[in-house]
Every structure is written in C-alpha cells, then in structure tokens.
Amino acid sequence: MRTMTQSFAHSTLDALLSDLVSAALDGRAPTREQALALLASPDEDVLDVVAAAGRVRRTYFGNRVKLNYLVNMKSGLCPEDCFYCSQRLGSEAEILKYSWIKTGEAAELAAKAVGAGAKRVCLVASGRGPSDRDVERVADTVAAIKDGTPDVEVCVCLGLLKDGQAARLAAAGADAYSHNLNTAEEKYADICTTHTFADRVSTLQDATAAGLSPCSGAIFGMGESDEDVVSVAFALRDLDPDSVPVNFLIPFEGTPLGGRWDLTPARCLRILALFRFVFPDVEVRLAGGREIHLRTQQPLALHLANAIFLGDYLTSEGAPGADDLAMIADAGFSVEGRQETTLPTARAEQVALRRRGAGTQVAANT
C-alpha cells in the first residue's frame, strides 16, 4: 500500500508524464524542469516512464525497428585523446589496429549486413578527420556499396571535416554524416582536450549544409550529472538531427574511464525516455553499451528507441545478430524493411527538401 507521500509523488509523476506525452505529440520540446524531473523519477516508477514515452514512439514509428550496421574501415592509432575511446592517443586497450580496409572488403561486409536485415550501413574510420585522399577512398566505397544495393542508406563517420569534404561525400552518394556531441558543452573538457565541443558542432553543421542527413548523439555513463544529460539533449535538438544514437559507456580497461560503472538499467531507460520526448519524430537509436548496461531490460528499451545497431561495434563485440532478431520478434516488434520510410511523413518531406536545397546550392557554387 502506498503512503500518502508516495501517492502524492506518483500523482505528480503521472501529471508530468501526461504533459510530456501531450507536448511530444504536438511537436513541442519538454522544458528543462520537466526533463530534470523525469530523470529524477524513482526506479520503482520506471515502467510508467517507459509506457508514457512508448506512446510517443508508437505514434510516430509504430512497431518497426530499424537495423543499422557498423563497418570499421580504419581502427586505432587515433591522435585524439577522447577519454572514453579505446582508439585514443595513449590507449592501452587491447584492440585490433589496422589501416584502411579495401573498398571491396567494405562493400562485401555491407552486403552481408543488408542480407541480415540492415537498412543503414555506417562507414567509420578512426582519426581526427580525413585527408582529401581519405575522402576519395570513402567516396569509392560508398559508390561500390550503392552499386550492389542501391536502396541501402550509407552513413559516413570520419571525424572533423574540412571545407568541401562534406559536399564531396554527398556527391558520391552518401546519405548521412554521423558526428556525436557526446556530452554537454560544459563537461566537454573533462572528456577530451584535443578538440572542442564547438569543433563537433561545426562539422555537423557543415554536413547538414551539404545535404547530408545529420546523425548525432551522446554517450552516457561518463560521470555526467542530470543537468549535463539535459544540456546535451537540448544542444542536439538545436542542431535538428534526423537520427540520434544513444550510447552507454563501454569502460575499456586501458582508458581513463576504464573503471566507470555508473549506470543501471533503470537509469538507461530514463535517459532513453527523455530522448524520445525531446526527439519525438526522429530516429532514436539504441547504440553502444546497451548489452552491458541494459542487460535483461533491452526489450523494454525497444519501446523507446526505434533503431538499434546489429552485430559488433567499432572495437567491441555486440550481441549475436540472431539473438537481436529474436529479441525484436519476442518483444512484439518487426524489422523495418528497406522500402519503408523510417521518419514520419512530415519529417521525411522536410529532410528531402533540405537535401534538394543543398544540392541546388552546391551546383550553383560550382
């Protein structure tokens, strides 16, 4: 039986969740106070939080789950010092290190992923940012993938871009560019000293201006406060990404954050719920670290996120693909087909207009 205080607190949460759902369905962002209250809600009420955010997810995305697949084109030996990363400068993590894989190998990996149900292939390379020669190499890989599977989405993640590089990737047929903000601007210097939060924002803006669909998210479990979680969520909303990966820290031994195990499944679910309320009609993707932090609660996370990564991550193993497909089916969801449009109609039309406008501007400048 609930005490009077507990009943009052529960009714307050009910009112908060009702307001958040109404705002999301009207396309309005939560207030900062609402976002902080959601993150501070007690663990015993997490199912109520999931149910409320799940209403928003079902309204915009039904029961579909989009599958994404990572192709690690270049691993390790990065000159940046991002404290969370196993590929960072000075990392002692035991990972594979290799230079660029061949175009044919990348295309073959992409084809296998598509055969397993992946709708988007993400081409990722370690480093501060690509040289122009690197961009040409990736452009050739994009073309090879598109030649074999024209309707697959190709997202590129190469770090900080220089002038003209985003336009070259768009011209090669890339659909999206991924560059995470990772944490709040106020906390950024605590997780990296070799580049800034502003550098990341600038690259994402350049990619968007070139007509690439912006993909940007964050990593949680790095010692951030509730204020930090809300700040990075709102900073991302200001950038208006089409897809938002939510990562949970994989604490690699041999990195500065190797000993951090701050997250619980309930904490992860509340963060995912917040991102669904902040991004009601945007692809929210369950990304790195889900297996070790959500554990047996991963099926609940599908009621919040409408996309996941299938298979392994950049330098760590994910769940076997067959297990993920079984989890999706057992939870009552279905894999989104390549012919289905991920984003709701109004949002998808906005994206198409933006890309056509960018293409027209690039043509006028050449």
TrEMBL record:
Alphabetic keyword roster: 2Fe-2S, 4Fe-4S, Biotin biosynthesis, Iron, Iron-sulfur, Metal-binding, S-adenosyl-L-methionine, Transferase
Keyword presence, Transferase: yes
Listed transmembrane segments: none
Function summary: Catalyzes the conversion of dethiobiotin (DTB) to biotin by the insertion of a sulfur atom into dethiobiotin via a radical-based mechanism.
Species per Swiss-Prot/TrEMBL record: Catenulispora acidiphila (strain DSM 44928 / JCM 14897 / NBRC 102108 / NRRL B-24433 / ID139908)
Protein name (Swiss-Prot/TrEMBL): Biotin synthase
Residues binding [4Fe-4S] cluster, per UniProt: C78, C82, C85
GO molecular function: 2 iron, 2 sulfur cluster binding; 4 iron, 4 sulfur cluster binding; biotin synthase activity; iron ion binding
Catalytic activity, reaction form: (4R,5S)-dethiobiotin + (sulfur carrier)-SH + 2 reduced [2Fe-2S]-[ferredoxin] + 2 S-adenosyl-L-methionine = (sulfur carrier)-H + biotin + 2 5'-deoxyadenosine + 2 L-methionine + 2 oxidized [2Fe-2S]-[ferredoxin]
